[in-house]
Amino acid sequence: MSIEIRQITKLFGKQKALDEVSFSIKKGELAGFLGPNGAGKSTLMKIITCFLAPDEGEVAVNGQKVESKNLEIRKNIGYLPEHNPLYTDLYVKEFLEITAGFYKLKNTKQRVAEMVELTGLGEEQHKKIGSLSKGYRQRVGLAQALIHDPSVLILDEPTTGLDPNQLEEIRHLIREISREKTVMLSSHIMQEVEAVCNRVIIINRGKIVADGGINEIKAGKLNRNQVVIAEFSAPVKLDSLMAVEGVKSAVQNRNIWEIESNGGQDIRPAIFKFAVGNSLTLLTLHEKQQNLENVFHELTQKI
Q1: How many helices (H) and strands (E) does the chain have?
Q2: CA-to-CA distance for 267 and 246, rounded, in angstroms?
Q3: Which tens digits make up the pLDDT trace of 165-211?
Q4: What pLDDT is recorded for position 291?
Q5: What is the pLDDT of residues 36-69, one digit of tens each?
Q6: CATH 3.30.70 segments of the chain
Q7: Domain 3-218 belongs to what architecture?
């Protein structure tokens, strides 16, 4: 595993920011980390990147325990904080050369040139950072996080405040980066995670409330009963559907039924069998897909 989070708990006074959080992210995964403001996203990211120490539990990156005194581990981690801290009076190229010097890179000029090319800063490299747009400042932050070629990249709200064009450019850049690196991307914007990630982890009040593929979570497989949409070739009585094994409830809208299971099992085979047994043709039979935003609200509004 590239990132392993094991039973992390973090307290700020009496407030528990993280409560026994555990999950792992495999090499090459692009995982979205969702949660409302104050859920613990930034706190966990600061622990992963050595800026905070947990009160309990531990984090490992590439098999090495993360500790503030372990400087070697930082060579494997790139970090773009939520409030991208940059020296605005420096020129882009100058800033990246200084950053490369912090990591004592031997091929500084070559590496800076590679980062300028990767992040699309060619026309901006001789400008002062303070004169750049928000989108280009985010590119500079990404170049800074990547310059030492880390295997793990932690991005905390990387697209906040960007216009639609800048947003798509940064999304494309993150997708390209994730082909070779493990990326953990934090956001409270569901559309952002859905656009770039293949896995989503949702945290609420310091606890993980969902973890899985985006389609799995939208289908409700991880935290809700399965909901199936079915349309039959002839009218069906509610009592008959309720007698089908595994059915918890059924609601009819014209000829279309929305059927909820009473457990984790897939009820589609039972509905198909019901249709065959009653000489009915199934015109529609599929799982109901929810908007990720709706799932997020449902999971994070629970007490």
Answers
A1: 10, 14
A2: 6
A3: 878 888 888 888 888 899 999 987 777 788 889 899 999 999 998 89
A4: 67
A5: 888 899 999 999 998 899 999 999 998 888 887 7
A6: 227-287
A7: 3-Layer(aba) Sandwich (3.40)
Phi, psi of 238 (to 5 degrees): -60, -45
The pLDDT assigned to 87 comes to: 93
CB neighbourhood size of 238 (10 A): 12
Give pTM, 2 decimals.
Answer: 0.76
Exposed/middle/buried for residue 206 (C-beta within 10 Å: 0-12, 13-18, 19+): buried
Nearest to 208 by CA among 226, 222, 195: 222
Give the number of other CB atoms < 10 A from CB of residue 75. 12
Predicted pLDDT of residue 1: 59
Quote the CA–CA distance of 5 and 19 in Å, as a whole number. Answer: 12
Is pLDDT of 224 > 50? Answer: yes
Interatomic CA distance for residues 187 and 42, integer angstroms: 10
Per-residue tokens: 3: 């990132």
Predicted confidence (pLDDT) at residue 283 exceeds the cutoff of 80: yes
Instruction: Return the CATH number of 227-287, one of 3.30.60, 3.30.1050, 3.30.70, 3.40.50.
Output: 3.30.70
2 contacts: CB under 8 Å, gap ≥ 6: 25, 26, 27, 28, 29, 61, 62, 151, 152, 182
Give the distance, in angstroms, between the CA of residue 148 and the centroid of all CA atoms in the same chain: 23
Give yes or no for residue 148 having a pLDDT over 90: yes
Q: Which of 60, 76, 237, 207 is nearest to 154 (CA)?
A: 76
Distance between CA atoms of residues 210 and 131, nearest Å: 41
With H, G, I as helix, E, B as strand and everything else as coil, classify residue 268.
Answer: helix
Tell me how far the alpha carbon of residue 53 is from its chain's centroid: 22
